[in-house]
Write a structure and sequence with these properties.
The radius of gyration is 22 Å and the shape is globular. It is built from 16 helices and 17 strands. The protein has two domains: 15-83 and 409-446, Urease, subunit C, domain 1, CATH 2.30.40; 85-400, TIM Barrel (Alpha-Beta Barrel), CATH 3.20.20. Strands 1, 2, 3, 4, 5, 15, 16 and 17 form an eight-stranded mixed sheet that branches. Strands 11-12-13-14 form a four-stranded parallel sheet. Helix content is 33%, strand content 18%. The chain starts with a helix and ends in a 7-residue tail after the last strand.
Length: 453
């Protein structure tokens, strides 16, 4: 009898490891996460005492009391599991230190920044129009898209579209942006992007930062050409009038908040009817004025570890803060943020899908990884429940990427991209920051930014 007990102990003990263990499905074939509070990403109420069985890179089963012969068992009592975050509007590769530039766009820098997103539990990103030819050379894009390389999976909108002489100016790594002078040229440029395997195009249409806006005939041609190739069209905008014009031309994604006026019932009805996805990028508008003062996250390690070198010194410099506070755009930016909060809540309550996106990585103050968690908190500030904000950052963002068949929720058959958290974010959205482990395709790839790799 004693020999038999010792035999079973030898079999069982190696399979019992902590919830932050490096034991993975890759080495064992099966992974069983035990006794979690489950947030599945659909908005459904959290389910306590649930088990998640992962086989290879896929969720095989979710339920209570699951058993799986040969599985590595990870006790997770007291912890919460949710889908990994997805950010449907970012920029990768052009930022390094406090400067954005074409010369920064290297394979090493791209991979470094995708690793940063991964540490913060963001495992899919859509780069909105600022990628460069290096991405499409030697099948690098394919490897990043399918997750063959470390870090977040990268979806690309290729080279964006803007008005000649308009936003964005051809500096800070923006020199590859297309600037069609005619509807025909716009169509031809979209054809070139389609050949790269791009599924979404990005266009800058407004003149908020000065210079000409995009002619409506050009934006209409871009949308039509994208649809001809089965691609979605996303627009950088600021003004309600631009949104109305683009919606009438069958735009698919509004990639920034409407910030000059509150949306009305007519526009809400059109957005709902056409199932347009709304990406509010609230954190962008918050960052546009926040460092005129001292925001509450300034000395938070979760924030500081996301920063590019030199950024903390820049944003805490007295002269920098004074310059921002005294700038002509300071009050305008604060007003734009408040309007953005009102509009995203009205849009959400009207049944229009809101997806998480932040514009992180476009400049040093838009910290990659941290911005995505701040965005969730700002959605809650706008009036979302924590579960609604999480759905924006998981299922709805996956839909924006056209990846919701495999990602965005925790259910059998989906890829096992998930976060294990120390506390339940449905009771306090800031608990998404309390990362115990990040799993990409069934393998633990990080313990979060505070605990290192």
């Amino acid at each position: 009898m004693l020999q038999k007990l010792l035999f079973y102990a030898v079999l069982i003990l190696p399979c019992i490891v902590s919830c932050s263990s490096r034991e993975t499905a890759a080495s064992k074939g099966k992974l069983l996460l035990k006794d979690l509070t489950l947030i599945d990403g659909t908005g459904r109420a959290p389910q306590p005492h649930m088990d998640v069985l992962i086989v290879g890179d896929t969720i095989a089963a979710i339920g209570q009391g699951l058993q799986a012969e040969g599985a590595t068992v990870i006790p997770c009592s007291g912890k919460t599991v949710m889908p990994a975050l997805i950010s449907a509007h970012v920029h990768v590769g052009t930022l390094k230190g406090t400067t954005a530039a074409a010369g920064n766009y290297t394979r090493e820098n791209v991979l470094r920044q995708l690793a940063m997103y991964q540490r913060y539990g963001v495992l899919q990103v859509l780069v909105m129009g600022t990628d460069r030819p290096l991405l499409f050379a030697n099948k690098l894009y394919d490897s990043l898209l399918n997750g063959a390389l470390p870090g977040a999976r990268l979806h690309s909108a290729g080279y964006g579209f803007a008005a000649p002489g308009g936003t964005p100016p051809p500096v800070n790594g923006m020199d590859r942006v297309n600037r069609p002078a005619s509807a025909l040229q716009a169509q031809q440029q979209v054809d070139s992007l389609a050949a790269l395997g791009i599924q979404t195009i990005k266009m800058w249409v407004d003149n908020y930062s000065g210079g000409p806006g995009m002619d409506a005939a050009i934006s209409r041609a871009l949308i039509q050409a994208a649809h001809r190739h089965g691609m979605k069209a996303a627009a950088h905008l600021f003004y309600k009038a631009d949104a109305e014009q683009l919606v009438s031309d069958s735009l698919d994604i509004i990639a920034h908040s409407i910030r000059d006026k509150e949306v009305d019932d007519t526009l809400l009805a059109r957005l709902r009817e056409q199932r347009i996805i709304y990406i509010p990028t609230l954190s962008l508008d918050k960052f546009a004025y926040a460092y005129g003062e001292t925001p509450p996250w300034t000395n938070d390690e979760f924030f500081k570890r996301s920063l590019e070198p030199g950024t903390f010194q820049m944003i805490t410099d007295t002269a920098y803060r004074r310059k921002m506070r005294e700038s002509a755009g300071y009050r305008r930016s604060k007003a734009a943020f408040e309007t953005a909060l009102k509009n995203v809540y009205k849009i959400h309550k009207a049944g229009i899908p809101v997806a998480l996106g932040t514009d992180s990585g476009a400049s040093a103050v838009r910290a990659q990884g941290f911005s995505e968690h701040l965005e969730l908190e700002l959605l809650v500030q706008a009036g979302f429940t924590p579960l609604e904000a999480i759905t924006a950052g998981t299922l709805n963002a996956a839909r924006a990427l056209r990846a919701d068949d495999r990602y965005g929720t925790l259910e059998a058959g989906k890829v096992a991209d998930l976060l294990i958290l120390e506390a339940d974010p449905s009771t306090n959205i800031s608990n998404t920051r309390r990362i115990a482990a990040v799993y990409k395709a069934g393998e633990e790839v990080s313990k979060g930014p505070l605990q290192g790799e």
